[in-house]
Amino acid sequence: MRQTFDERQQQLQHRGYTVAFGVLATSLLLASNAELFILHPLFATQALLVGVPLVLVIGGLISYFAAVDAYLTPQLTRTMPMLAGFFGLALIDHGYEMVSDWRQGFSDPVWAHGQLQQGSLDWAVLLVWLALTLTLAIKCTREHYWHRLGITRLHWLMLAGWGGLLVLTLWVRANVATVHTPVRTTVENYVLMILPLVMLHQLDQTHKRWPLVLSWGWFSLMAYLQLFH
Amino acid sequence: MKNTKMRAARAAADLTQEALAERIGVTRQTIGAIEKGDYNPTIQLCLRICKALGTTLDDLFWED
Question: Domain residues for B13?
Fold first, then answer.
């Protein structure tokens, strides 16, 4: 598998770095001098002043590299769908946390007293996860990378079984069990449960017996703990 | 401007974009971008393409 960049990709990388550095420097300059115009600091804390522009610029830069293949080389045909899935999960997790915070009434405000507050960083991170997920998903669809994952009917069946087990656990946790675990924790545990099997499927190695045994062992242990503890 | 000469030469050599890319050590997307006229390759890359297709710079990159 070749993972070096060709001259076109290197040119795109250099262009991306230059533009990102320019945008970062300009946005930091504007953000730190905004008080000259609005007569008070724009960001509530110093960490936000650096954090928000940095998250947005770095996220934008990685999305750009993914879009032009200058970061994830097209040879990594299995990595792109995997990363799209990972960023998608991160997006869902972060979005879920923001919504549940908002419903319980302790979400951080985005704007208060004429200043950007902690909530702006939450939105910046959400935007970055969204940009990365969409960029990689569109790229994978355009380049037909989804098919190269090699997902068979058996895999779909296993996935359906995993989903069924998750639903059963959620029902048990809500109605039968004495200890009520939050839905998010159960879902996260279920993702952790299947992760070794998914990663093992992506590896191009021939001798998989022992890793497979260990992955299934981990899966069974987690399923047992989720259902009965 | 599209590089139809290069596309024709590649087809005549019975090579896919992927196969040509593999021979000269670039990505398939780069070959696609050159043929579509979206990317101007360096002279070194032009030479590698010409050698792989058994043609000259004039044949592929000289505009009539």
Answer: 4-58
SS3 A3: coil
Alpha carbon separation from A176 to A190, A227, B35 (Å, rounded): 19, 10, 64
C-alpha–C-alpha distance, residues A115 and A67, integer Å: 34
Please report residues of B whose CB lies closer than 8 A to that of A73: 27
For residue B19, give the CATH number of its domain: 1.10.260.40
Domain ranges across chain A: 7-148, 151-228
Question: What's the structural domain count of chain B?
Answer: 1
- Segment A98-154, tens digit of pLDDT: 998 899 888 888 888 888 898 999 999 999 999 999 999 998 998 888 887 778 888
CA distances from A125 to A25, A48, A100, A121, A210 (A): 20, 12, 16, 6, 38
**DSSP assigned state of B25:** T
Contacts of A69 in chain B (CB under 8 A): 27, 29
Q: What is chain B's pLDDT, residue by residue, as a tens digit (64 residues)?
A: 788 999 999 999 999 999 999 999 998 889 999 999 999 999 999 999 999 999 999 999 998 7
Contact A44, A116 (CB under 8 A): yes
In a domain, B63, yes or no: no
A9–B30 CB contact, under 8 Å: yes
- Look up tokens 């895999």; give the residue: A155
Nearest to A7 among B28, B29, B45 (CB): B45
Round to whole Å and give the CA distance between B3 and A72.
27
Q: Contact at 8 Å (CB) between A70 and A5?
A: yes
